[in-house]
Every structure is written in structure tokens, then in C-alpha cells.
Amino acid sequence: xxxxxxxxxVTGGSSGIGRAIALSLAGAGVAVTICxxxxxxxxKVADKADNIHAIVADVTDEDSVRALYAQAEAARxxxxxxxxxxxxxxxxxxxxxTLEDWNRIVxxxxxxxxxxxxxxxxxxxxxxxxxxxxxxxxxxxRGSAYVAPYVASKHGxxxxxxxxxxxxxxxxxxxxxxxxxxxxxxxxxxxxxxxxDKTGRSEEEARRGFAEINxxxxxxxxxxxxxxxxxxxxDAAISVTGQAIPISGGG
Length: 251
Ligand code: NDP
Fold this sequence. Notes:
Helix 1 packs across helix 8, helix 4 (99-127) packs parallel to helix 5 and helix 6 (186-199) packs across helix 7. The chain is globular, with a radius of gyration of 17 Å. It folds into 2 domains: 7-181 and 222-244, 3-Layer(aba) Sandwich (Rossmann fold), CATH 3.40.50; 182-219, no CATH class. Helices cover 48% and strands 15% of the residues. By secondary structure, the chain is an alpha/beta fold. A 7-stranded parallel β-sheet has the order 3-2-1-4-5-6-7, sandwiched between helices. NADPH dihydro-nicotinamide-adenine-dinucleotide phosphate (NDP) binds at residues 11-12, 14-18, 35-38, 41, 58-60, 85-89, 108, 112, 135, 137, 180, 182-183, 185-188. It holds the Pfam family adh_short. This is SDR family NAD(P)-dependent oxidoreductase. Belongs to the short-chain dehydrogenases/reductases (SDR) family.
């Protein structure tokens, strides 16, 4: 797929879903700026394609995001595509969730998503074109036990998607969320380790447990989520906005 778009931002592009999206966009000829907190992990992805550029930035830090925009847009022009993908997860019963843990999850997954896209909105609207894609989760569409801050943050991302889409309806800018089920990434590996520690299950049993939560009983590949993102940023999806699209193996 070749793209008219010139420059994309993918937060959390050093790992998992973000890395798959960055590689797909770069493969389609788009210059891609990736960010994350760990320089070493970003460098491994930037080494895979000449048109992937790494900048260390923390999406919870407004100044850090502002500096990223200034540096990346000065070098490669305004972002046509922004993929707010960076996210973290943890699990605990709600009554044992500390305020610190709540704030940590909400700050990255929801406030970080807002801070990621906000600087792009006015420019995209003025230029009359642009694509915003949030990586939410099926946790943005329904409740789940022991992950209250994660679920609340992802419901927030879906609400943010719908609000921004409504605000930008007549501008030529689309705003959508992708809602994956369990995807084979480093985040899932961490969840598998937590289950092994807490329940004494083997790695195989823990992995199978997560696969079985997806209705079709298979884990999703990051490339499947990237394919959905590529469709959302394509010309074919110009009439798709304000949607929260499950990539989840069923209802
Ligand atoms: P990974 O843990 O593999 O990747 C997360 C990425 O986010 C890393 O690049 C990480 O880099 C970056 N990141 C984390 N915190 C920050 C921060 N404060 N600022 C900038 N970057 C940050 O996870 P996935 O690829 O699985 O997750 C990507 C998105 O997909 C998340 O939003 C997640 O909630 C969502 N998702 C994942 C599912 C799954 O089963 N894996 C299912 C549904 C949704 P660094 O640590 O260096 O900052």
C-alpha cells in the first residue's frame, strides 16, 4: 500500500503493537517518528528502516511531548497521522488498588493519549486532512475483574475518540479507536508472568488462559492490529470516524 501521508507519530513504537504499526507505515513509505521512554528499545526498531526515527519521550509529560513535536515536525514536517498507542497494565482487586497505581495507569493510558494527540488537532483541522488512531482495548468496551484502572482508562480513550471525532467531523480529519483482545506482545508476557507468580500455573497454562479469554481462543498477532490501523489511515477509510473497532476474535 502506498500512502499520500508523509509523517506519522507512533507512541510506544519500541514494542509490540506500536512496533508493528511503525514498521507497516514505514513499509508504505511514510516517515515515522516513534517514541517511548527507553532509548535502547527505540533504537532497535529505528535500525530496521531508514524512515523510522526515534525520540525519547514520556507521554505523561506535557513538556516532553511538546519537545517531541517540535523536534520531529521541524525535521520531517507536520504529523499527518498520530497513533496514540503507548500503554501500561496492571492487575489487582479494586479494593487493593492504591491511588498511586490508579494514577499511574490513567496517566499513561488516558491522559497520555490526550497529550499525544492534542498538539496535532488544530494543524490537521486547518490543513483539512489527518488521521488519529487510538489503541484502546476491548477493555474500553466492557468491564473486567481485577483491572479497574485499566478498564476505566480504556473506556476513557473510547470516549475521547468519540468526542474528538464529533469535534472534527467537518474537517477531513478522522478519529478512531482500535480495541484489541489479548495480543502477543511484551505486555501480555508481563501478564503471563503475573498469573504464574500469583497462581503457580505454568507458562503454558497461563498463556492458554489468556488465549481462551479471546472468544475464538487464539492470541492475536500485533500485525493484525497494524493491518487495521493501516486500513484506518488509508483513503478507503475516509468515511470511518468516531468508531471503536474490536480486533478481538469475536463478540
Ligand atoms: P508493550 O508493553 O509491548 O508496549 C508498550 C509501549 O508503550 C512500549 O513501547 C513502551 O515503551 C511504551 N510506553 C509505556 N509507557 C510510556 C510512556 N509513559 N511514554 C511513552 N511510551 C510509553 O504493549 P502492547 O504493544 O501490548 O500495548 C500497546 C497498546 O495496546 C497499549 O495501549 C495497550 O493497552 C494496548 N492493548 C494491548 C493488548 C495486549 O493484549 N497486548 C490488548 C489490548 C490493548 P517504554 O516502556 O520504553 O516507555
